[in-house]
Every structure is written in structure tokens, then in C-alpha cells.
Design a protein that fits this description.
about 375 residues, alpha/beta, Rossmann fold, 6-stranded parallel sheet, 18 helices
Amino acid sequence: MTKRIFLVAAESSGDALGADLARVLKERNSALDIQGVGGPLMTEQGVPSQADIKGLAVLGFIDGLLAYSRVKAAVAATVSAILKAKPDVVVLIDSWGFTLRVALGVRAAAPEIKLVKYIGPQVWATRPGRAKTLAAAVDHLICIHDFEVPFYEPYGLQCTVCGHPALGRYSPGDGAALRARQGFTPKEKIILVLPGSRSGEIRRIGPTLWAAAELLDRDRDVRIITVAANSVREQVTAQVPAAIRILDEKEKEDAFAAATVALAASGTVTTEVALQGTPVIVGYKLGWITWAIARAFLFKSKYASLMNVAADAEVAPEFIQTRCTPENIAAAAAPILDSADAREEQIRAQDEALAKMGRGGRPAADIAADAVFNVLEA
């Protein structure tokens, strides 16, 4: 009897994870029937979306309220697609709020279906009580870090640690080739601006990062580039100052490798840039109501960036909320542009943090596939 797996991803980062996992699952067992809800990358791997996830990449309290009806409809459509497919295992990828609602819907209607969460909520940073909620909703968790596991042990949730997915997805970029394609000389200094992959991130963080880049450009002869995710390309294009090169998402590894320094919104992309040997300056802003709630009651970690969390030190300078200003970000990036020694020192520190995160180990998708097959066989 053919085994059936259903993958659920609600935004671009989850779509990438789902695509990697689908590829590995099929390589291991070509007879699997893999269906799902996701984006274009999963579709490329032969898993077209059975529900519309457009506009679900929301962040923050107010954005969540505004998107509530859209999220509710997408949850209902996803649960319906799962129940129709009758899979043996459902893998719920990232996107805590959305995938939790899907898990609860499936569990209520078809408790025999096994549920696997791939990437859990950041219980180590905020709201550790979510560990109990997740343990009651799913059968297995595939998480990034060893230090997440103790949060779930009291509730009996089995965990598999896969490491950071960006580490296994790493492909060396060709910075020299990108410079040649763009008409940049080998000695020209490049500032790479990465304002995020969600609409709210670009709206809140983008203007600060662009202003920081322009401050740096005033006293130096630099080139400024950006890589825009396909899902937000129009928004990025409308926001960037004149004369900025907007590169296609397919060129991102080359762009990351070519840059002298990156000014980036906190997220997976900071790890991806660091893997290419480029120093990163991190900025992040939430809506003020969300920030007030998070700061007062929720956020417990010293750092926002996973590299800094792994190192337990600020190896990549980060500026959150009130500290996320053009002046602060430009001041942190200036030494990287002006001093080869400062640049090499940050790269060395980032490399040490990446080693602590599991660089050089098995790809996360391979370990995640092991966990899914174990649940499937059990």
C-alpha cells in the first residue's frame, strides 16, 4: 500500500524547507505519494499547492488581527485538503500560528493521522508555555537546536534535532562572477541590503537599512545592491532609492559572496550571508504594540540573531527596535568597509558561531527525512 505524506508551508522560508524535504523523501522512496500546501519551490519538486497561502507571511499583533479572516480561510482550506488526501503523516513546517491551527483542526477531525512539526516556536526566546501547547497538538518535533529539547521533555514530546536548515542548503557563491556581470571591479566595495521577505518587515525595516546605506555612501565610493524575494519583489522595487541594483533571487548566493558587508533584517538570511563569508549587521523592528507586549512579557533571549544566540555573544552587531536607526547601523558597518582587519575579525567570529550551529554536519533535510520515515514506519 502506497504511503502518503502531506507537507504544509505557509510562507517562503517554509516553502524552501518543504521543497528540500520533498526532494530527499522522493530520493529515498520514489513510491511515496507526497501532496501539500506551499509555494513555488514545493511546486518545482512536484508538490503543487492545494490551498492558497498568498498573504499569510504576517508578523506582529496588529498585522495578525488584520489578516485574521485570510488566515482563518487558509486554515480551513488546508485542513479540508488534508482530510481529503487522507495522508499517513502530515508535516507542518514553521509558521507557528498557522500550522498550530491546522494541527488542531486535523487532530479534531482525524486523530489517526500522525502530525510532525518541522521547526518549532522559539520557546527559548519567548513564551516557553508554547512547548506544552505543541506537545498536546503533534506527535513529533523536528527542531533546530539541542537546547530546545529540554523545553519539551516534561510533556513527553519526542524531538529530533536537525541543525539549521541554511547550513545544509549552503552552496558556495561566486562573488567574482557577479561583480563581472554587474560591471563592478574586484576592488569596489559593495553594500548588500536585505530588508526581509515579509511585507511588514520591508515596510518597517527597509527604510532604515536604505538610509544607513546612503549614509555610508556619502563618504565612500560604494556600490549598493539588494536581492528581492519573488514574493515581495514589487514592494522592494517600489521602496529602493534610485540607482540601486535589484538582483534576482536566483543570484543570491553570488550576491552574498560578492558583498563587502550586508545590512539585513534578522532572519535565516543572516546565516546564509555569513556562510558566504560576508559580515552582517542586523536590524529589526516590530510594530510598537507588538514590541511593547513582547518586551514586557514575552521576549527572554539576549539576542535576536541565531548566530549570536549560538555564540552567546554579539558576533554580528544587532540593533533592535529603538536602536534600529540608520546612524547606529551605519556606524557598525563603517569599520567593516574601512578596515580589512575589522572585516576579517567579524568573519572569523561568525565562522566560529556557524561551527557551533552545526556547520559541516548532515543537511537538515536529511535528518528531517529520517524523522518523518520513523514516524511513518511507527
